[in-house]
Amino acid sequence: KEKKAKPIVALVAVQRKMLILMFELWKKNEYYDPEFEQKKQQAYKKLAARGSKQQKVESSLKILMKLLVF
Question: Residue 58 is part of which domain span?
């Protein structure tokens, strides 16, 4: 009985995931984009690169402020 239950549980999980995706697309009136995850990851990488540059600038400014105080 357990051997048969596992594939059914997996099938229901996939169905639920697809249903949620379809509902979100319908709610936002958008079309499915198969490259959505790739685009999202590229955007995160750009933001991370921008963030690291900003951190370098902020740390440089802190060092300059310390030098100006003394």
Answer: 36-70
